[in-house]
Automatic annotation (TrEMBL):
Chain ranges passing through the membrane: 201-219, 231-247, 267-289, 301-318, 324-343, 355-374
Signal peptide: 1-32
UniProt KW Membrane keyword: yes
Record protein name field: GGDEF domain-containing protein
Gene3D superfamilies referenced in this protein's UniProt entry, alphabetically: 2.60.40.2380, 3.30.70.270
PANTHER family linked: DIGUANYLATE CYCLASE DGCT-RELATED, GGDEF DOMAIN-CONTAINING PROTEIN
Residue ranges of domain GGDEF in the record: 457-592
UniProt xrefs under Pfam families: 7TMR-DISM_7TM, 7TMR-DISMED2, GGDEF
Keywords: Membrane, Signal, Transmembrane, Transmembrane helix
Length: 607
């Protein structure tokens, strides 16, 4: 039994026919639109003559030998054909191309004109103008020649013309270049040429300034955060900026116009630098070493390969075409390799991956436009000529946003780490039962204060020990004892100034430290000691039962009795112990001399 299948005989033929139509129809349309090979009517040059009209009148001759010049250009009409319909673009041409343009100057349109070819990456251009009476002018242009040899010191290639109304002119040219043969030819008035040049330089200045800001941003954050991603981003911005600075003719015009090595190398070196750093940037921001180790190794390996190509090209180990081939083949690799991983991370909610996808979407569309332009499939115009530059800037802005997100995430992680550290320190320095400082917390806070004290700002350190506290635990249980300790902590804090220190250093022992004493420090300290005794004068309530407590207080003064907390507590403890032996419930100052148990003042019982 024969089963029908969608790719069976009939369906297969239909699919094949559809494929052939999809391929042949555009080709037929281009062929039908292309002018024939016969000489075109001479162009009438006037104020309204457009670049498209000029291109339609242009005749080209391709496939010429490498040594072809104007002097040995074959004569006659054989081999000349109309320029393709892609205005200003002949596409890739490995061999020299000859140009011929005939025009008649319209009445009233004589005077000064400019012949402009606004594509600064062309290597070699020879032009010859034949005018009335056999008058001939010749010019040699191209970025392979020193900038000082140009007739007009401009970013674009241009020569001045003095044309007479009603006269016929013929322009012949030979062009050679290692890249695509993009030839946006115009005949314009000098004032229009200067205006267009100013606008082009202004646009490049704005774009270059944006890239410079991105570079400063990346370097500043990279220095502060020590993250490799910022370094790779900075290198990418540097390479991208140098590439467009050279590609748009500004480097030739302002920096390296007389340096042959720079004229030949800078554009490709910048492209290799930008592409290699892009591999490393994507590897870093997507954390491929954690999510996909093999992909991370691949990205780093390709970056290393491009670095080797950069060095070899700079030193003359490989020629321009080899470096160009490496750049063209590997240009889409960062996007193609990382896209599946970025898509999965974006679906999982990763903000970095989502931002990268937005940038790649814009850049991919603009890069496709640039590729079609370089292949000769799109006309040369403002948007097609600058699409790649605009798309690159958008992509770099999204990359900057990614770094911003990572910086915010790092900052948040740092804040959380500090909070966690502070919380752990607080837990380590806080008494869990009362919320007061414990012994470690007291030492951390009190030691710096004691180290700075002097006789003008005396500190008093009190050691408090409860009297009759053990019977409460024995008769009512430890919960009742804990309640008493918490209540006493609240009373002690209420009895002193908010800036004073109150701590529980163990069991029923408390410490109070204050610097708010009267001019007579000892008298002020005794007065505060009496207020502390009053905190237990009122019974503690336990479910309707009144619990009576007492306390004995010993204290020492800093700096009179010492500056070290441990020594002051020992003196205060000795005084407190002496007070308990003398009948409890008093306030005593510890001695500043050798015997720690010797009291400095007689005990003052609580009133």
């Amino acid at each position: 039994m024969i089963r029908w299948h969608p790719w069976g005989p009939i369906a297969g033929r239909r699919a094949l026919l559809a494929l052939l139509l999809a391929v042949l129809l555009p080709w037929c349309a281009v062929q039908a639109a292309a002018p024939d090979a016969h000489p075109a009517p001479a162009l009438v040059l006037g104020p309204q003559t457009s670049a498209a009209e000029l291109w339609q009148a242009l005749r080209v001759r391709t496939g010429l030998p490498g040594g072809t010049h104007l002097a040995n250009l074959p004569a006659g009409l054989d081999g000349w054909r109309a320029a393709p319909p892609t205005t200003g673009n002949l596409g890739p041409q490995r061999q020299a191309v000859a140009l011929r343009l005939d025009w008649v100057v319209a009445a009233g349109s004589g005077g000064d004109w400019m012949l402009e070819i606004d594509y600064p990456s062309l290597d070699h251009i020879e032009l010859q103008l034949l005018g009335p009476g056999g008058r001939m002018q010749r010019w040699t242009l191209g970025d392979a020649h020193p900038f000082s040899q140009r007739t007009v010191a401009s970013r674009a290639f241009a020569v001045p013309l003095e044309l007479q109304a009603g006269q016929t002119y013929q322009l012949l040219g030979v062009v050679r270049t290692t890249g695509s043969m993009i030839l946006p030819i115009r005949l314009v008035r000098p004032e229009a040429f200067r205006m267009d040049e100013s606008r082009a330089v202004l646009l490049q200045g704005w774009l270059g300034g944006s890239l410079f800001c991105l570079l400063v941003y990346a370097l500043s954050l990279g220095r502060a955060l020590r993250e490799p991603a910022h370094l790779w981003f900075a290198l990418n911005v540097l390479g991208t900026g140098l590439f467009f600075f050279s590609y748009e003719g500004l480097g030739m015009q302002h920096v390296w116009g007389e340096v042959a090595w720079a004229r030949d190398k800078i554009t490709m070196l910048a492209a290799l630098l930008g592409l290699g750093s892009a591999f490393l940037y994507v590897d870093a921001v997507l954390d491929l070493a954690r999510h996909s180790p093999w992909l991370s190794r691949t990205m780093r390996g390709l970056a290393l390969l491009l670095a080797a190509a950069l060095v070899l090209f700079a030193l003359g180990g490989i020629d321009y075409r080899t470096a160009y081939l490496a750049n063209v083949v590997l240009s889409p690799a960062p996007l193609i390799l990382a896209l599946p991983m970025a898509w999965r991370l974006a679906q999982a909610g990763d903000r970095v991956a989502r931002t990268l996808l937005v940038g790649w979407a814009v850049f991919g569309a603009c890069a496709l436009c640039f590729t079609l332009l370089q292949r000769g499939l799109l006309p040369m115009g403002f948007w097609t000529g600058h699409a790649f530059q605009f798309g690159t800037l958008v992509e770099l802005m999204t990359w900057m946003a990614v770094l911003g997100s990572r910086t915010r995430a790092s900052h948040l992680a740092g804040v959380l780490a500090v909070r966690e550290r502070d919380l752990l320190a607080t837990i380590a320095q806080t008494d869990a039962l009362t919320g007061l400082l414990n012994r470690r917390g007291l030492q951390a806070v009190a030691e710096p204060l004691l180290a700075r004290c002097d006789t003008r700002r005396v500190h008093a350190v009190y050691l408090i020990d409860l009297d009759r506290f053990k019977p409460i635990n024995d008769q009512h249980g430890h919960d009742a004892g804990d309640m008493v300790l918490r209540s006493l902590a609240d009373r002690l804090k209420a009895a002193v100034h908010p800036d004073d220190l109150v701590a529980r250093i163990g069991g029923d022992e408390f410490v109070v430290m204050t610097a708010r004493l009267d001019r007579d420090a000892d008298a002020g300290a005794r007065a505060l000691g009496q207020r502390l005794l009053q905190t237990v004068a009122r019974p503690f309530d336990l479910d309707g039962h009144a619990l009576d407590l007492g306390m004995t207080v010993g204290y020492a003064l800093a700096p009179h009795d010492g500056r070290v907390l441990g020594d002051l507590l020992k003196r205060a403890d000795a005084a407190m112990y002496a007070g308990k032996l003398a009948g409890r419930g008093g306030v005593r100052r510890g001695a500043a001399s050798a015997g720690m148990a010797v009291e400095h003042h007689d005990a003052e019982p609580a009133h």
